Amino acid sequence: MRTPRRLLAVAAPVALVASCSAAVPVTAAPNATDPVCAQIVLATPTRLGDGLDEIATTAQASRAWGTAGDPVVLRCGVAVPGPTTQRCVAVDTPHGPTVDWLVVPDEAGATTDTGWTFTTFGRTPAVEVHVPASVAGTRSTSFLDQLGTAVSIAQQTGSCS
Questions:
Q1: DSSP letters along the chain, please?
Q2: CA of 100: how far to CAs of 23, 85, 91, 127, 138, in Å?
Q3: What are residue 43's phi and psi, to 5 degrees?
Q4: pLDDT higher than 70, residue 65
Q5: Distance CA 50, CA 22 (A)
Q6: Which residue, among 75, 87, 65, has the nearest Cα to 128 in the 3D structure?
Q7: Is 25 exposed, middle or buried, given 0-12, 13-18 or 19+ CB atoms closer than 10 A?
């Protein structure tokens, strides 16, 4: 009877450490403590698009999907964008609201593939979604519409048009 207990005592801490090591390091947004951010994060889907499954993050009011090496990362509570000349697109959500997003390409690196950062426009608190080049280069970013229902929990204060 002692052997199983010893194995359990050793296995439990190992499992705990293993689950922590897979977490994506994320810096919390300045307003991550906004209670609406908790509602938004809890309302996000566990899977985006085809095969981007949820993975753990290290910061409050954040969510990630894909692989720990190159995840799609959502952060709630980023600075609310003011008037801008950046590209703004309205994304229709299936069976839900339209969400306006600012679309900003990452700096081009050594490859021609570009990552993208999408930030809600006209919503408080603001939400940012970063899509790395490795994901954007192999699949469409059309999965952004799957975040619309969650993101629309934030109060709408404006729009692209």
A1: -HHHHHHHHHHHHHHHHHHHHTPBP-PPPTTTT-HHHHHHHHHS-SEETTTEEEE-BSSTTEEEEEETTEEEEEEEEEPPP-S--S-EEEEEPTTS-EEEEEEEEPPP-SSS---EEEEESSEESEEEEEE-HHHHTTS-GGGGGGGHHHHTTSEE-----
A2: 29, 14, 6, 11, 24
A3: -90, -5
A4: yes
A5: 21
A6: 75
A7: exposed
Q: What is the pLDDT of residues 75-123, one digit of tens each?
A: 999 999 999 999 999 999 877 799 999 999 987 555 556 799 999 999 9
Instruction: Quickly tell me which residue has 């952004």 as its tokens.
Output: 144
pLDDT digits (tens, 9 = 90+) for 3-34: 444 433 433 333 344 444 579 999 999 999 99
What tokens were used for 82?
């003011």
119 beta partners? 102, 128
Specify the higher pLDDT residue, 24 or 137: 24
Per the listing, tokens 């970013």 go with 141
